[in-house]
Amino acid sequence: MDFIQKIERVFRTFSNIDKTNAEDIMLQLSPTLQDVEKHLSTPQDLEYGRNVLFKNERVEVLLVFLPTFSKTLVHDHGFSSGWIYVVDGSVLNLLYMKGKDGVKYERNEFYQKGELFSVEGDTTHAMYNPSFSATVTLHIYSPPLGTGQVYKPHE
């Protein structure tokens, strides 16, 4: 079974995605690098590649490819909550605090292959690949992305 078909099958059985069942969903998907390899997007205008694998009215599933020492933009997810699974490699989740003057770096969290973490809509963060090998992450957002914002952090 193709990985996209697997995603479609799994999301037919879940009417709601939240903190309580996100881990079960990832266990059912059990993404491996071999599963997602052909769906990876190489970076174009950004430092990272991004590919939407599945989207309906309740959920959006996307794949992020972070080459060596690359990062995403600092952003939030609007009204969406997200669950991020590290398919391969490792990632620093850089967390920022919003203030009246913009955003300021607060702390980071380190995740590696096989680990799952979450970001709520109001979480402002960037993901950074701190290693000499590529990182691949699978993201599930509910509701689908649409109202997030990109920030320029203070130096």
From TrEMBL:
The lineage of its organism: Bacteria, Bacillati, Bacillota, Bacilli, Bacillales. Keywords: Dioxygenase, Iron, Metal-binding, Oxidoreductase. Signal peptide: none annotated. Belongs to the cysteine dioxygenase family. The keyword Iron applies. This is Cysteine dioxygenase family protein. CDD domains: cupin_CDO. InterPro entries: CDO_1 (IPR010300), RmlC-like_jellyroll (IPR014710), RmlC_Cupin_sf (IPR011051). It holds the Pfam family CDO_I. GO terms for molecular function: dioxygenase activity.
